[in-house]
Structure formats: C-alpha cells, structure tokens
Amino acid sequence: MVSERVTPEPITAHGAETRNRPVMAWGMTAMLLGVMLIAYLDKAILGLVAQPAMAELGLSAAEFGAISSAAGLLGPLSVLLYALVADRLPVKATLFTVVVIWSLLQLPVFFAASGALLLVTRFMLGAAEGPATPAAYTTAYSWWPNERRGLPTALLTTGASFGKLIFAPPLALIIAAFGWETGFVAVAILGLAWAVGWLFIGREGPHGQAAAGRAAGPVAEAASRAPIRSILLTGTFAGFVAASTASAMLAIVVLTWLPSYFQVSLGFSAVAAGSLFGVPSIAAMVFLYGFGAWSDRMLKRGTAARRARGLLGGALLALGGVFLAALPLSSGVAVPIALLMLGYGLAISVNAVVNPVLVQIVPAGQQRSVLSIGLAVTGVLAAAGPLITGHVLDGARATDTLADGYTTVFVLTGVVALAGGALFALLVNPERDAAKVEAARVARGSKGA
Q1: CA angle centred on 114, ends 393 and 190, rounded to 5°
Q2: Measured at the alpha carbon of residue 12, what is the angle toward residues 442 and 230, in degrees to the nearest 5?
Q3: Which residues, 6+ apart, have CB-to-CB distance to 442 below 8 Å?
Q4: DSSP state of 329
Q5: Cα separation of 358 and 377, whole Å?
Q6: Who has the most CB within 10 Å: 28, 229, 284, 333?
C-alpha cells in the first residue's frame, strides 16, 4: 500500500544551496516570469487588435478565431519534437533562441498586414513558442525542491496576469493612437530586450537535470530513466491533461474574445475594453498566489499531494467553471465582470499545481521531456477553443444576437472547466503514481543489468 503522506526531500547540499541562496532562486524565477509574460503578450495582442483588424482586413469572427487558433496548432508539434531532445539541450540557449525568433515574427505584420500574413506568422509563432513553457517551468523547478514549487509556479503562471495589468493598457493606447499594427512592434521590442538580459544572467539551478546528470554520471543517469509509457498511462498524467486543457482553453478564449465581449456585450469603448482586459486577472493572481502558498504549506506539514494538489486544485477549477456558466443569469455590468473575475480566477488557480503534480512523479532526468509531451497534448486540445467559439459567434451574428453569443462562449468554457476540474480531482494521485513509475524504472534497470 502506498503511503498517503508526503516524504520530504532529504536535506542535501543542493537543498542547502536553495535555502542559503533565496535571492538567486527568486531572481531566476522572476526572470523566467518575464519570458512567460512576453509569451502571453505575443498571443494577447490578437485580442487587443481584434475589432480594428477584423474591420480593416474584412475578416469574420470564425476567420479571426481560426487565426488565433493557428498559434496553437504547430505549437504542440514543436513541443513534441522538443520533447525528443529536451533533456539534452542547454536550457539557456533554448530560451534565448525561441524568444528571439518569436519576437522577430511579430514584425512582418507591421509592414504588410493581411489576413494571410497574420495566419502564417501565427503558425510560425506557435512553433517557435512551443518549447518555451516546459523549458521555463522546469528551469524554475531546478531552483526549488518539490514541496516549495507551488508559489514559484503561481508566479510564472501570473505572467499572463501581469501582462494584462501592466502592458495591456499601454498597448491599447498605442494601438488606438498609432494603429493596430504598431502593437506587434511594441511586443517584439519587449521580447528582444528580455533575450539580451537572459543571455547574460540565465542558468539552471541545483535541482535541475544538468546537476542531476553531473552527480550521477552517464551510466547511472541512463539507469535513472523510467519507461515513458509507465508515466503517460498514469492517472496523474491523464488528470494533468484534463485540467491543463480546460484552463488553457479558457485562457485562449479570454485572450481572443474578452475585449470584444467588453465592447459588444457590455458597451465599453475600445480603450476602456483594453484597460479592463486585465481585471479578471486580479482575481487570478490572488487565487494563484494563495493556492500556491497554501498547497506548499500543506505539503511541508506532510499532507498528501493528492489532497493538497489534486483534490483542492480540481475543486477550484470546477468552481470557476460554475461561476462562468452562471453568466446568463446576470445583468448590468458589475455582476458579469464579477462573475468573470471569480470564474477566471478560480479556474486559472489550478495552474499553481498542475505542472508540479506531473513533475512530482517523473525522474529528474526526464522532467523536461515529459512536461513537454503533456503540454503538447494540452495544446492540441485547447487550440480548438477559439475556432469553435468563432463559429458560435458567427451564428449569433447571423441571428442578430451577437451580445448573447459572447456570453455563450464563456458559458461553454465554464462547462469545460467544470469537467476538467472533476477529472483532475478524480484521477490525480502523485504518491500512487510516483511509486508505479519508480517500480517501472527499477524493473527496467534490472533488465538492463
């Protein structure tokens, strides 16, 4: 029988290094927050320019939704390809390269805007951005032991929230003053500036794959790898996919349609809608940091990760879906915004634990590749969100009920969040699945011997 208690990591030289160098650990985590923020802005720019771009380029909501989905189509493929080599590539060079590439891909739209060019650059952007998320999260985890990863994960996840709160309002002003194409240039400049900084200070921490490989040696490192099938067939991996898909689909739909919802359904101007874009993220930041710190505290006290991460994370995601599904029952302006804040905030808070719960069951030398596979599967499923909702909106436009159509879009994402939360709570059991993966690793090593 597998224990329902968490066994804390032993106090090692690496653990002591993390405790004795908290400034370095938090500094690297903050730097990685920057790459998540910029990755978010690369996608959010489409939501901010949706109305003027559709009007100028003559695009329907379904066509614009397809363009938004394009970034998620090649992204999963690139993540899968990255998974094949992730454990062998230096993470510093990986992050620098992908950020430079996706920043440069923002520029063509400024010089020759068209629907076709938007589609092509979104495809390419998705492919370039794919490896960034697993590389950034596992690099951050390399600075923290298992029971201290909830809060750093929350910080990285709030890259989207910081992007909305800090950069969305000035971007909306730039777009209103100089044209929607200039927003892409501003995002490109931010990305290139981050890449220069990372080139000088970025590196992996004492709990990372590089450190594990150096300590074990090449023979022992090979023996420490579990069969990938033993990881992918666990309930924890399936729960990870369910919850990550639900939260990612909600995030993509919000990126694509929230400013339009504020304008069409609630009657705000384009500048006001851009400024309000970050309002739901206020709740997301509160819940993410609160849940991240709370789950870490529970783990340090010996609570099982199934409860601290699985059951509670699933409950929060499902509750967020309930609030989103209640939007048709609201009226006015304040109540819909409040429901969006609570629904989005609660649902996104599950991101404080989804990556740590998967990494927890995986040997150190395989964390980057396994997380890449999980995010690739999630990306394929979540990419359908804007495409499906675009067709919903075109149907609503045809019947002159577009304002109600935007409400329906968020109700659909709420239903998906409710289902994803239920599956996450039901399937995730890190203690059980870590034992299964370890048994498979030992069996594989015995056969090799």
Answers
A1: 90
A2: 25
A3: none
A4: G
A5: 14
A6: 284
CA–CA dist 339, 102 (Å, integer): 34
Rounded to whole angstroms, how far apart are CA atoms 425 and 310? 5
The pLDDT-based confidence of 14 (bands split at 50, 70, 90) is: very low
Q: What are phi and psi of 87, to 5 degrees?
A: -75, -5
Give the pLDDT confidence of 51-61 residue by residue, as tens digits: 888 888 888 88
The CA distance from 73 to 94, in Å, is 20
Confidence of residue 301 (pLDDT cuts 50, 70, 90): very high
Neighbours of 263 (CB within 10 A): 19
CB 136 within 8 A of CB 338: no
CA–CA gap between residue 187 and residue 110 (Å, rounded): 12
Q: What is the pLDDT of residue 20?
A: 47
Task: Write down the H helix ranges in 142-227.
Answer: 150-157, 159-162, 168-178, 182-201, 209-223
Q: Record the tokens describing residue 349, joined without a space.
A: 């808070």
**Residue 78, C-beta contacts closer than 8 angstroms, at least 6 positions apart:** 126, 127, 128, 130, 131
Q: First CA to last CA across the chain, in angstroms?
A: 27
Element (H, E) at 374: helix 367-382
Higher pLDDT, 231 or 212: 231
* Residue 2 φ/ψ, nearest 5 degrees: -85, 135
Q: Which residue has the higher pLDDT, 211 or 158?
A: 158
pLDDT in tens, 368-388: 889 989 988 998 888 788 778
Distance between CA atoms of residues 242 and 421, nearest Å: 8
Place of tokens 């808070």: 349
The dihedral sign for the CA sequence 72, 73, 78, 84: positive
pTM: 0.75
Neighbours of 201 (CB within 10 A): 11
Per-residue pLDDT for 449 more than 70? Answer: no
Of residues 394 and 315, the one with the higher pLDDT is 315
- CB–CB of 341/280 below 8 Å? yes
- CB atoms near residue 259 (< 10 Å): 27
Contact 188, 106 (CB under 8 A): yes
Helix or strand (DSSP H, E) at 62: helix 61-85
CB 71 within 8 A of CB 122: yes
Distance CA 230, CA 436 (A): 7
Instruction: Report the alpha-carbon distance of residue 279 to residue 337 in Å, rounded.
Output: 8
